[in-house]
Specification:
This protein is an alpha+beta fold and 236 residues long. It contains 4 helices and 14 strands. It folds into 2 domains: 66 residues, no CATH class; 152 residues, Glucose Permease (Domain IIA) (Distorted Sandwich), CATH 2.70.70. The protein is 25% helix and 32% strand.
């Protein structure tokens, strides 16, 4: 007869396999989107055979948008070991230098903010290899993700990573006005690779990354970046 400990181990193994499937996804569509796409197709067929042709056409258009939103292209970046890869697709909202009193790293820090519109790829990727030391999910509000106060007040998922050379960085998935679901596929103590998938945010959002102030930044405000491809800076 299975014990409670064995049941917990089995559940953990199932969860790990599911997370691995998301991270190593070989489909052009993120797995989190498959249920929404299937639901859209089913509703479209039902509406069509019920005689609501115009509604069925509109539902097909919505489904096509969902397919585009959940696209998950393969990405590679042949970068130096100290390179910081963009964790998100989108437009750079800001590059700010923070003192230790304003930084979650408790030291002089550079903060880079990236805004993901509903038309960007929303799968997030690890900026540099290392070990995940902490993941903290915070409830919050849903201001528009392109506003500065979104970083402070919106619902978010904060991930702390420590590199092999002892550098600590923090990257934060931040929900937006429309985005109401933050997904994270990694766990504390996981060793992660630069550019690997780690999560997504559903329907328009933002990602902030905090890095040591000594890092060399090679992007500017309003630049377009791609997760897993664009180099945004270099650690010291």
């Amino acid at each position: 007869m299975p014990t409670l400990l064995n049941i917990k181990k089995d559940l953990f193994m199932i969860s790990s396999r599911r997370q691995s499937a998301h991270i190593e996804n070989r489909f052009p569509i993120a797995r989190d989107g498959l249920i929404f796409i299937l639901l859209g197709l089913i509703i479209s067929v039902i509406l069509y055979y019920a005689g609501f042709v115009l509604a069925a056409i509109l539902m097909v258009i919505v489904t096509l948008f969902i397919i585009i939103f959940f696209r998950d292209p393969s990405r590679t970046c042949d970068a130096p070991h100290n390179a910081l890869i963009s964790p998100a697709d989108g437009r750079v909202l800001g590059v700010r230098h923070l003192g230790e009193g304003d930084s979650p790293l408790r030291k002089n820090t550079t903060k880079i903010s990236i805004f993901m519109s509903i038309f960007d790829v929303h799968v997030n990727r690890i900026p540099v290899k290392g070990r995940i030391s902490e993941i903290v999910y915070n409830n919050g509000k849903f201001f528009s993700a392109n506003l500065d106060k979104a970083s402070e007040h919106n619902e978010n998922n904060r991930i702390t990573l420590e590199t092999d050379k002892g550098h600590k960085i923090i990257f934060i998935q931040i929900a937006g006005l429309i985005a109401r679901r933050i997904v994270c596929w990694i766990n504390e103590m996981d060793y992660v690779k630069s550019g690997q998938r780690f999560g997504l945010i559903r329907f328009g959002s933002r990602l902030d990354i905090y890095i040591p102030s000594e890092s060399k930044i090679v992007i500017n405000v309003r630049d377009r970046v791609k997760a897993g491809e664009t180099i945004i800076g270099y650690l010291p």
